[in-house]
Amino acid sequence: MAAPGYAPNAGQDEIVEEEVGLLNNNDPRSLCQGKIGWSRRGMFRLGWQILLVTSAVVLLAITSKKLIGVARLAAPQLATIAVEAKGKKDRKKICWSVKGAHMKGEDLLIKVVLNSSSGLIHEKVGGRKCAKICRESDRCMQVTFIGWQKTCLLYKRWSEDPIEFRDGMYQTSYCNKDVDAINATVKRVYKKKPWLPVWYSCTWPTDYKNGPNKTIYSKDGHPRIDKTAPQLCNQKSKDCGWYQADCSFTKCCAKRDFDKDFTWVGHQCVKKNEYLAACMSPSDAAKMKSQGWDGTIIGGYRLPRKLDPAPPGVLVQPTSLYCFTVVMWHMAAVKGDSEAALASNWRNQGRGIMQCDGHKIYEGVNAKLEAWGSFSNIDAFLVIWERVGREKEYLKYGWTVKVDADAVFFPQRLKQHLGNLRTPQGARVYLKNVPFKFQFLGALEIMTREALQVFLTHKPECNGGGDHSGGEDWFTASCLDGIGVDHQEDFKLLHDMYANGGGDKTCTDQSYVAYHYYKTVEGWNGCWSQSSR
Q: Is the pTM for the entire model greater than 0.85?
């Protein structure tokens, strides 16, 4: 009976032994009972050990996952930083250029003079050489090329402040490894470059009703042209025809005459046949039909254009002055004192043009006396202008000023007037100086450097455009208008006794820049003293 009741216990003990292992092969019952008691204690200890080991494994696994996760998160960032650092180190230094720009620069590094046999180096050639020098220097960040000096100015830091813009003469390059920074800087610099209207402009004599094209600036400072009327002339032509020149293509005439009341009368482009048209005065045009011409007016004269001031923030023409006077040193006085005596007086006192940034006195050329009592000095002054152009000294300054020897002239006042005019930097502009007749009297002729360059290049066209029996100032004004030079007005530039009929002979109004005419040394000095009080 016992045997059958044991079977279950024996089975259970076998199971336990199978789990914990048998220590001997003696009596199974006693062994089982002993093993069972030991196995419970062992199991308790083993359980704690397993628990501790398992906890350690789990903790280790959790910690490892966190570390792996952190490593996985940090690895890309560290790799990116390493790549960026390597990229900046290995990135090549580049230079971006702003053509025509003369920038101030910060912390001059060195001045390099380029070798050249010619007097000037074009910005394309010189700018490229200067940029290469800066790119190869570890400390150079900006270089400015100055053509007329043939030099490269290398700077340790760059500046966004322009001195002036002049295409063909200057170039500034910014050099760095940071492309984005250079790009942003170049864009900001270009925004300061003045916008100038196109050189050419023409109109017609009959149906032009709404006035000339006018430069209008939007609120953000960007200019646009407001076309107030349709155009008959070829707007892309800089070469309007002079007297009797073929205008069949340009439909534009350059010459203007004035009548006895000094009213300008522009020439017209008159059609002869399907192949030919010519520029001529309105009076001549009226006769053409009787001579077998078609007679249709297909174009008109180039309309003089008044230039608007530059808006705030846009670079204006520098006010530096190159002044000159023409003196007949060996000519006797016509009335009063001689030109030699007048010029020696203000020259020795350091007054008049001697106070300009640059100045020169030229020896005059003989001119013939006309019936109206003044000299026809067109050809004489054309010779002088040729000398000015050959010497090229005027290129260093923003404005060129011709002053008569008998004019009392204050250069510093002129600079103030020029500042108020806000002429866009680089504009081709001359200044109308009196509200009288054609508004440009020769005692004080003022034009920008760029206007003088155009005048010197195209004055041969003006020479062939008519006779030279008038005054030099009339010829100069009509030539400048004809070749497309713009103008601005300041009728406080010149106080002229000839223009006001000899009425006001005082110099007390200090708002004027110059007073004309004073034919004696005593009168000249008196005017200077009166206006300087």
A: no
